[in-house]
């Protein structure tokens, strides 16, 4: 399997360059962004080839022609995700830990936006179904706006198995659903929590929902049917962080 792929956009590319764990093969930049790339290259222990190109030539290397590349693209290598065991080990001694679990989400822009919110609100890891995760999705990277470099993403075959492992590691499993029995605003956030969100059209699958310790809803204006899943994540993580009082180190 080819593990090199192109990503595009200023925040996306510069964040990848600044991530010491990300291998950069080559960068294409227009004249306007050349100094940004050269400075980023100098400030890192590794060096890579930087080529000045026309915007039209940068577009040619992208499989998604709708991506607004902003005159910057990079050929990068995949970062192998940590195992579930490694994630639990890394979070064992933390006072506060927050995981996200994405059950059957398929929209790559939504997934990217969720990853961006997760990075902003100190989420420790994101678990999602392996079959729905395209690690080289340019749309996902662009929507994440650099956040792909900051949050561990764990593709798994079976979310219910992951939920059981989380419970064994003292995580409370909170499902988010429009038909939830309790209002999220009243939820007492535990120190270790995993928040489960379902697909854009169908919500959580039955077995995943049944395995949650509690299912809550966001009480919104009844004239509005639902929130976009990435907006729901941001609301949920805001409440989580507010109740825990301070950013987690």
Question: Which sheet architecture does the biggest sheet show?
Answer: 7 strands, parallel
- The name of the CATH topology of the largest domain is Alpha/beta knot
Distance between the termini: 36 Å
- CATH architecture of the largest domain, by name, is 3-Layer(aba) Sandwich
Strand order of the largest sheet: 7-6-5-10-8-11-9
Number of helices: 9
In terms of DSSP E residues, the strand content is 15-25%
Describe the structure.
By secondary structure, this protein is of the alpha/beta class. The relative contact order is 0.15. It has nine helices and eleven strands. Strand 6 (125-129), helix 6 and strand 7 (153-156) form a beta-alpha-beta unit. The chain is elongated. Helix content is 33%, strand content 21%. The strands form two sheets. A seven-stranded parallel sheet has the order 7-6-5-10-8-11-9, with helices on both faces. The chain has a four-stranded mixed sheet with strand order 1-4-2-3. The protein has two domains: 4-77, 60s Ribosomal Protein L30, Chain: A, CATH 3.30.1330; 84-243, SPOUT methyltransferase, trefoil knot domain (Alpha/beta knot, 3-Layer(aba) Sandwich).
């Amino acid at each position: 399997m080819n593990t090199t792929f192109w990503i595009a956009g200023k925040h996306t590319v510069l964040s990848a360059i600044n991530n010491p764990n990300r291998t950069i093969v080559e960068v294409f930049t227009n004249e306007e962004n050349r100094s940004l790339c050269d400075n980023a290259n100098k400030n890192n222990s590794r060096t890579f080839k930087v080529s000045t190109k026309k915007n039209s030539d940068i577009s040619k290397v992208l499989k998604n022609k709708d991506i607004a590349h902003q005159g910057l693209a990079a050929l990068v290598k995949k970062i192998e995700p940590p195992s579930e065991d490694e994630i639990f080990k890394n979070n064992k001694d933390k006072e506060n830990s927050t995981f996200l679990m994405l059950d059957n989400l398929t929209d790559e822009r939504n997934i990217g936006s969720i990853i961006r919110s997760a990075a902003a609100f100190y989420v420790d890891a994101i678990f999602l179904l392996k079959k729905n995760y395209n690690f080289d999705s340019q749309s996902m990277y662009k929507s994440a706006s650099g956040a792909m470099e900051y949050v561990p993403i764990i593709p798994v075959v079976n979310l219910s198995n992951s939920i059981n492992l989380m419970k064994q590691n003292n995580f409370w499993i909170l499902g988010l659903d429009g038909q939830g029995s309790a209002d999220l605003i009243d939820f007492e956030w535990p120190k270790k929590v995993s928040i489960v969100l379902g697909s854009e059209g169908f919500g959580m699958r039955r077995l995943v929902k049944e395995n949650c310790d509690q299912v809550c809803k966001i009480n919104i204006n009844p004239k509005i049917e639902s929130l976009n899943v990435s907006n729901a994540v941001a609301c949920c993580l805001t409440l989580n962080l507010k109740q825990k009082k301070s950013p987690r180190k």
